[in-house]
Write a structure and sequence with these properties.
about 130 residues; TATA-Binding Protein; 5-stranded antiparallel β-sheet; 5 helices
Length: about 130
Amino acid sequence: MFHYTVETNKTPIQAMDDLQEQLKSEQFGVLWQLDMKEKLKEKGVEFNRTYHILEVCNPVEAKRVLTENALVGYFLPCKIAVYEENGMTKIGLPKPTALIDMLQNDVLKEIAVDIEKRLIACIDRSR
């Protein structure tokens, strides 16, 4: 699977707050947060689902991968979605290893494996 997604009984806001705290423990910060429901409403489009997209980055890791191959910037920053579906809050991300596989670079693959483990751990701890 190209993604990792879990469910939680927390509200999306609680899940995002907890996730941000966990991300800090791995030196990841939230660069930007998109409230898709509100953004679409601003554009005159009704969307009745709570859906947030967080763009997260660890600056040291970003420098490492960009130094290895500038094309990695096409995948940065990492995205984590927090949304409601069928009465449950879900937290998920596209797996960095799935994206990096497209570049066929063993050094980048190693870095992506580490980053993926760390981000998944943050998600799991924020459930």
